[in-house]
Write a structure and sequence with these properties.
Strand order of the largest sheet: 8-7-6-11-9-12-10
CATH class of the largest domain: Alpha Beta
Strand content: 25-35%
Largest sheet: 7 strands, parallel
Order of helices and strands: EHEHEEEEHEHEHEEEHEH
Shape: elongated
Structural class: alpha/beta
């Protein structure tokens, strides 16, 4: 059984004893009920992992003795998903599932046909929830890297990301090309664009294809926007060899 994973900053991981305090300490002590001698890993969410064994209660938290440290390289090819903002809590569901499956960066996209509008305080709260969801899902799935959740992007900014990517895919249910049969670059950033429930506009599609995106379909069925990114990312992870 794999040990649970907790988060701490890189400076804390340099110590021979890592003290989990605050929410992390409460989760380790009261939810996971870790006992002295049990294994646990602590990561900074940016590739550094400390392999630890529980020492016992410390002032204000739970002490873990570091047995070894290792650096996990950033994945290559990296997977970026540009996710049109879904309604309700489906956005957080999408972030959770994409994090668990192995997506490395998530870009919230204000597509023309998105129903939610992220502006002002509401937008800040929504973005914070996506980031917290990615953080918790990374712990649950025992990832050394927490996916970056960027600020909200416009269609123009998405086109710019497409132009910089090693390979870019625009998911379209009616596309002739199949994502599963697409030849993928061996390295660099693989970017997926997932449209809203109402679909992308013709203007968005033209701009993205002009920037270099290849329109692909997932399969014979049409998935919700909150599901499509996870399924497409799984196909890319398998096709790129990251799931070999």
């Amino acid at each position: 059984m794999q040990p649970p994973v907790f988060l701490a900053d890189r400076e804390a991981l340099a110590s021979d004893v890592v003290v989990l305090s605050g929410a992390e300490g409460r989760h380790a002590a009261t939810v996971r009920r870790l006992r002295p001698g049990e294994r646990a890993d602590v990561t900074d969410g940016a590739g550094l992992v400390a392999e630890c064994v529980v020492a016992g209660p410390e002032d204000g938290g739970l002490g873990l003795t570091v047995l070894a440290r290792r650096e996990v390289p950033f994945p290559d090819p990296a997977i970026t998903v540009v996710q049109a903002i879904p309604k309700g809590d489906r956005g957080e569901l999408a972030v959770e599932e994409m994090t668990e499956v192995g997506v490395d960066r998530i870009v919230p996209w204000a597509a023309a046909r998105c129903v939610p509008v992220w502006q002002g305080a509401r937008g800040e709260r929504s973005l914070a929830r996506w980031r917290q969801t990615a953080r918790e899902a990374a712990k649950q799935s025992r990832r050394a890297w927490i996916p970056e959740v960027t600020g909200i992007a416009s269609a123009v900014q998405v086109a710019q990301l497409i132009g910089k990517a090693a390979g870019a895919i625009l998911l379209e249910p009616a596309a002739h090309a199949s994502l599963a049969r697409l030849s993928l670059p061996a390295s660099g950033d693989l970017l997926l664009v997932v449209g809203p429930e109402g679909g992308i506009t013709s203007e968005e599609g033209e701009a993205f294809r002009a920037a270099g995106a290849i329109a692909c379909r997932l399969g014979p069925t049409v998935l919700r926007t909150s599901t499509a990114g996870t399924v497409a990312a799984a196909i890319l992870l398998a096709g790129s060899g990251r799931w070999s």
